Amino acid sequence: MRPDLILIGVVGRPHGVRGLVRVHSYADDPAALEGFKALVDDQGRNWSLRWRGADGVAELRDAQGQALADRTAAQGVVNTRLYVPRDALPEPEEEEFYHADLIGMEARENGQSLGRVVMVHDYGAGASLELAGGMLVPFTRACVPEIDQANRVLTVIRPVEVAGEEGRGVGSPKTPEPSA
């Protein structure tokens, strides 16, 4: 896979019998997927997309402009990842980052490497960075005060809840004080 490609969506299950599919968009505005000149998959095939209804139902067309013919053809592209070139995306606002820009960065705390960012999770309550080895770090200014994109390094200050014993895992539970 080309390193300049950014994952923008994934093809889901077929919808109906006429070749339509559900597409899960990773764009802030799913309508933006229609505006890209070409979406590229893992095999280097170019696609265009047109939304056809609510709930992410879309028509995919190949580079020759042919839509998926039927449900069988739609089933054949389930789980296809759709990418766009990085330069086709707008530059993020200040203090905003594309996940792809963070993945692979080295995380350092007090000059010591904690590993590289392998995944960015965001389940709605705020993003967290998963480092190699499984450590999760809240992606907040307090925990990640500095990001050096040019050198692909970010500074981490782990809160006590993340640091834990010997710098790993979750902190130990407190022993309750006896009541008087």
Automatic annotation (TrEMBL):
Single GO molecular function: ribosome binding
Primary site of residence: cytoplasm
Highest taxon of source: Bacteria
Family (UniProt): Belongs to the RimM family.
Primary role: An accessory protein needed during the final step in the assembly of 30S ribosomal subunit, possibly for assembly of the head region. Essential for efficient processing of 16S rRNA. May be needed both before and after RbfA during the maturation of 16S rRNA. It has affinity for free ribosomal 30S subunits but not for 70S ribosomes.
PANTHER family the record matches: RIBOSOME MATURATION FACTOR RIMM
Domain RimM N-terminal intervals: 8-87
Record has Zinc as a keyword: no
Stored NCBIfam families: 16S_RimM (TIGR02273)
InterPro entries: PRC_barrel-like_sf, PRC_RimM, RimM, RimM_N, RimM_N_sf, Transl_B-barrel_sf
Protein name, UniProt field: Ribosome maturation factor RimM
Subcellular location: Cytoplasm
Any one cellular-component term (Gene Ontology): ribosome
Organism: Acetobacter senegalensis
Every Ribosome maturation factor RimM PRC barrel domain range: 100-161
Keyword annotations: Chaperone, Cytoplasm, Ribosome biogenesis, rRNA processing
Quaternary data: Binds ribosomal protein uS19.
HAMAP family with a match to the protein in the record: Ribosome_mat_RimM
Record comment regarding domains: The PRC barrel domain binds ribosomal protein uS19.
GO BP terms: ribosomal small subunit biogenesis; rRNA processing
Keyword S-adenosyl-L-methionine: no
